[in-house]
Amino acid sequence: MPRFVLTKGFTLKTIKMIIEQFKDEFLAHYSYAIVSECEQKIILIDPSRNPEPYYEFAKKFEAEIIGVIETHPHADFVSSHLQIHQDTGATIYAHSLTGVAYPFTPFDEGDEISFGKIKLKSLHTPGHSPDSISIVLEHDGRDKAVFTGDTLFIGDCGRPDLRESVGNLQAKREELARKMYHSLRDKMMKLADEVLVYPAHGSGTLCGKALSTANSSTIGAEKLSNWSLQEMTEDDFVKELIADQPFIPKYFGFDVDLNRKGAAAFSPQMEKVKVLNNLDAEVLDADVLVVDARPENIFKEGHLPGAVNIVYGKKFETWLGSIVRPREKFYLTAADQEQLAELIRRTASIGYEDFIEAAFVTYTGDVIMPVMPLEYFISNPEAFTVIDVRNENEVKKKTIFSDSLNIPLGELRERIKEVPAGKPVVVHCAGGSRSAAGSSIIAAELGAEIPVYDLGGAVRDFSSAEK
């Protein structure tokens, strides 16, 4: 597993100008640094929570960070725009509709920022949110690139259903979907075909449903291949865009509001997290949730009472923010100190670091989960209650067990009373990672009454509706 750093996706270099892409692979997030070499100045777009990679980049060029542009208040990660402003004096730019609590300069339709031979032009492109903007980069008098935020992705466009209940500007998804239809056609598609497209997210984000694995494109290429730019009626576009969108994690609304306020500085927040070197389990508050990130096989061999197994992996942040409610205190534990330190930083990328009651390494525990009796299950499926923790759109596409009860993982803690206690429980997902968390949640509630099993990766062997 890669260390938690922002990796450089690519560098586009022309005479006196550089565009550097940074990638947070865990949240499938792209941020950008635009460098005017002739003036040694940098403007950042949609930076991640930890500003250090941008500071290191600026130091390499002996350049000054003069601005940070937020394309919208992000739902899936926390931005470092306020800290960068406080550390460097850089101006924060955002659309005036955003309603932010930090000092900023409005960057509305038609507004421009010029430095060196670079001109950045704001396009108001509502659809993902009412206050979304895209930024066109003009260099030497020609449009060269557009930073599309969550408006236009490679192969897709932004989802329109995240502002129905959060943010200062709430809007119905149908209303935003119609705005997206016009933003794409009246703004994006009117740019020249050769203009490069740099989105805020790639494949793996929950801000869209069909993103490509590519990290850049052109307007011309997207006109040919992106479904959202094809010829269709507005009604047909709205119907397609709204259908089968991914679930919305619990933390999304919290992050929108936090990004509108501006998050606290990253390093001081890391130093505030209490790390226990010698754990005495008796000192832990039994009412506080334990998030155990160790591998599922080790977790099953021994863990703390009531622990939820959110396995260390690429989707840790997503499932942490889907299972744990904003402002809910929790203990964080991992297999070793290195993983623990990384997971604390990754927790901060969604703004949850303040909710860590304490963090520590765990080697074992008194609670053991039983081994899945696979052969008996295959022969006697009726003897078990099968819980499917996949999302509803996944279940619609493919049913694995016809008599299963579908409770999506992100809803399981709130709907735990719906799980019948009359028979042993088998929990499954699509590949095994979510069922580890799901089975641990159910076991914490019912494990003393009935056996709870994790089908794990064996689910791949069940290709038909019932075995």
UniProtKB/TrEMBL annotation:
Rhodanese domain ranges (all copies): 284-329, 380-467
Family annotation (Gene3D superfamilies): Rhodanese-like domain, Ribonuclease Z/Hydroxyacylglutathione hydrolase-like
GO molecular function annotation: metal ion binding; sulfur dioxygenase activity; thiosulfate-cyanide sulfurtransferase activity
CDD domains linked to this entry: POD-like_MBL-fold (cd07724), RHOD (cd00158)
The protein's name in its UniProt record: Glyoxylase, beta-lactamase superfamily II
InterPro entries: Metallo-B-lactamas (IPR001279), Mito_Persulfide_Diox (IPR051682), POD-like_MBL-fold (IPR044528), Rhodanese-like_dom (IPR001763), Rhodanese-like_dom_sf (IPR036873), RibonucZ/Hydroxyglut_hydro (IPR036866), Thiosulphate_STrfase_CS (IPR001307)
UniProt entry keywords in alphabetical sequence: Metal-binding
GO biological process, one term: hydrogen sulfide metabolic process
Upper lineage: Bacteria, Pseudomonadati, Bacteroidota, Sphingobacteriia, Sphingobacteriales
Coiled-coil positions: none
Pfam families from the UniProt entry: Lactamase_B, Rhodanese
